[in-house]
Every structure is written in structure tokens, then in C-alpha cells.
Design a protein that fits this description.
about 290 residues, 6 strands, two-stranded parallel ribbon, single chain
Length: about 290
């Protein structure tokens, strides 16, 4: 990457000829993320709104493309690290996200839970420990006042506000549980999201079948970790007038969880009337949709 060439290209961003600008834009985009610091410096120096807007659009395009490609790679590699997946989604809205800070916060919650756990505890006792640490000690709860807000889908916001929707709280809960070798996985219910305590660990993305008593019980992180059984799932589905299918009882894959997270974001931005963001999010959906 030649710095002089980049500087020369950036100096031409105010060209009124749309064809020339399009050529310059494509050339800058081809450099990828290394060109961003140069663009940011020019943005700070410029007082021309046209130039600033053009720079902002180019930077957004580069950052979005990076997020899309990294998310696609995550899916293609099996989506085994759920935390990496949810951080990638957060990078859409927060490109300069402090990943180390997120890892530190989650490690702190995990450590507090680890201090309370021991191998002699039953599955229910382990869940009680997790509930105590996550919901009482660290104060997480469901965001009932702003349920559909996009912020509920970004892990950095959830950790900062300690509020989330059923999916984001389930993701956080399962990340902590699995890091402590507790077999808790997401369950993709319609209009809700819960967790399943499995009788055995699995290397997701291969889902566990709920047949043959592979699921011990279910957990609802949105109601601070309430534990319940299959009959309550049956009752919930009857209320929704939805026909029961195995997927509503079985642990889903990490990719399923991130795909639903992206869908949630699409609906949230649609409700708020942000068509550009809806367009972006629908593109991200393609990265997590397996053909």
C-alpha cells in the first residue's frame, strides 16, 4: 500500500464528477481496512460536508465488508465459539469495539460462578449457582420496558446496561455455563428463547436430540433462570397455537442463535424506521444462512 497514492486519491474525494468519484471510491475500497486511518485524518481536517459524508460512507462500507466476511468465515468454520459470533454482530454497530473489555467482564462473571461450584453439585444446584451469580450478584435482568430495542442484541450494551432480551440473556448464560463445562444450550422457541440443560455435553454445532431424555430440564434466563419441564413448553406452544416440532424442544446450534440474533436486529431497525440499517442487517443474514 503506497501512502502517497492513497493521499492523492483522498485529495480527489471532492471531485464533482460522479464517474471520477466512483472510480476513486472503488480504488480506496480495494485497500480495505488499512486505508481507514488515512480517511479518518482527512475527515478531521475537512470542513466540507460532502467530503465528510463521502468519507463516512467509504469507512462504513469497508467496516461492514470486514464484518460480513468475518461472520461468513465464522459460520464456515462451524460457529463453535458463540462468544466470537456475538462479538462479530456487535462490531456491525461498534466497529471499534473493545473486545478485551468484553472478555474481561465475562471472565469476571465466570470466575465468580466457578468459586461457588463444585463437582458434587446436582444439575439443579449448578443452575441455582449460575442464577445467583448472573442475576443477583451481577444484576442482569430482562429488558421489559424496551424489549425490541436493537441495544438488546449487542453484547457490549447488554454487559454495560445489564439488560437484555430472552436471546441475548440466553447467549450470555450459555457462554458462561459452557465455559464451566456445564451442558446448557439454546432452544429456538417461536416468539421466545430458552435454554436446555442436557444430560451430556456436545460439540456444537451438532445439535442434541431431545429424544431418549437427552434434555433434563429447561431454563428461562428472561425470568432470572426459572427452571421448568417439557409440559410447560407444550403449554406455551398451545397458547401460541403452534404445532409442536422437535426443534422447539432440542438444543439448537450456535449458528442458529446468531442467525436469530440478526433477525431480531432486522425487525428492531424496521420498527424504528432505519431502512439503511435494515438493508445492512439483511446482508449480514446471508452470511449466517447456510445453503
Amino acid at each position: 500500500m503506497n501512502e502517497k497514492d492513497i493521499t492523492a486519491l483522498i485529495s480527489l474525494l471532492d471531485d464533482p464528477d460522479e464517474e471520477i468519484f466512483s472510480h476513486i471510491r472503488e480504488k480506496l475500497l480495494s485497500y480495505g481496512s488499512p486505508v481507514i486511518p488515512f480517511l479518518e485524518r482527512e475527515w478531521e481536517k475537512s470542513f466540507e460536508s460532502v467530503i465528510q459524508t463521502r468519507i463516512e460512507n467509504i469507512i462504513h462500507h469497508i467496516q461492514f465488508n470486514d464484518t460480513f466476511l468475518n461472520l461468513k468465515k465464522w459460520v464456515e468454520s462451524g460457529g463453535k465459539n458463540l462468544l466470537s459470533g456475538i462479538i462479530l454482530i456487535a462490531r456491525y454497530q461498534y466497529p471499534d469495539l473493545d473486545e478485551a473489555a468484553i472478555l474481561k467482564q465475562i471472565e469476571r462473571i465466570k470466575h465468580d460462578a466457578w468459586l461457588e461450584l463444585n463437582p458434587n453439585l446436582t444439575a439443579l444446584e449448578k443452575v441455582r449457582v449460575l442464577n445467583h451469580i448472573i442475576f443477583e450478584v451481577h444484576g442482569f435482568s430482562g429488558n421489559t420496558t424496551n424489549f425490541h430495542a436493537p441495544q438488546n442484541s449487542y453484547i457490549n450494551n447488554v454487559l454495560e446496561s445489564k439488560r437484555g432480551n430472552p436471546l441475548s440473556l440466553s447467549i450470555l448464560y450459555s457462554i458462561i455455563a459452557q465455559s464451566l463445562d456445564i451442558p446448557i444450550y439454546g432452544v429456538n422457541l417461536p416468539e421466545h428463547f430458552i435454554l436446555a440443560y442436557a444430560t451430556e455435553k456436545t460439540d456444537l454445532p451438532v445439535p442434541i436430540s431431545s429424544k431418549d431424555d437427552k434434555v433434563m430440564f429447561y431454563i428461562n434466563p428472561f425470568s432470572k433462570g426459572t427452571v421448568f419441564g417439557k409440559h410447560e413448553v407444550d403449554s406455551f406452544l398451545r397458547q401460541l397455537k403452534v404445532k409442536p416440532v422437535p426443534a422447539f424442544y432440542e438444543p439448537c446450534t450456535n449458528i442458529d442463535m446468531i442467525r436469530r440474533l440478526v433477525n431480531n436486529l432486522s425487525h428492531a431497525y424496521e420498527k424504528l424506521g432505519y431502512p439503511d440499517k435494515v438493508k445492512d442487517i439483511r446482508k449480514l443474514l446471508k452470511a449466517v444462512t447456510i445453503a
